[in-house]
Amino acid sequence: MFEVFKKEIRELLRDKKTLIFIVALPVAIFPLLFAVMAFISSQAALEAEQKVNTYAIINGQYAQSFTDKVFYHKSFELYKGEQTFTTVAELTEAVRAGTIDMGIYLPSDAKQTLDEAKQSQWQVVYNDAKAINFLFDRVKELAEEFGDDLRIEKLLSYGISEQQQQAI
């Protein structure tokens, strides 16, 4: 049995192509290649996560606490250029041109809309074509916080205490 093994090893060492494909690729090259790919992708994700995005909000006075949360968030910076935006189309053009990274359009006062038992339809414009994009998740998180605050405030005005709200 050992003689057969020795013969196979000698034959393997004689044929360099087989040695490379059977030993070198699986043992050394593939793990090295996967390590480099993992490092590059983690660096890209880290860079995308730490990027500070410029934004513009149209009608920010309709949701002042949301506007303040976005302003003080570490990942967002208010657009300070000369261009002004008044419509969603202008926001879309600015995102396409790279002037801003994100635009938010607030069509109506969120509190007033809630008092009228309607839903406020906000529009967020951003470039979703990027491979790694944390932008929408961050805005969604801030919008959900704002919505939760509005809901709590409205339920308190109906006489439902915070303890009762937690049970719901």
From TrEMBL:
<dbReference type="GO" id="GO:0005886">
    <property type="term" value="C:plasma membrane"/>
</dbReference>
<keyword id="KW-0812">Transmembrane</keyword>
<keyword id="KW-1133">Transmembrane helix</keyword>
<protein>
    <submittedName>
        <fullName>Uncharacterized protein</fullName>
    </submittedName>
</protein>
<dbReference type="InterPro" id="IPR051449">
    <property type="entry name" value="ABC-2_transporter_component"/>
</dbReference>
<keyword id="KW-1003">Cell membrane</keyword>
<feature type="transmembrane region" description="Helical">
    <location>
        <begin position="20"/>
        <end position="40"/>
    </location>
</feature>
<keyword id="KW-0472">Membrane</keyword>
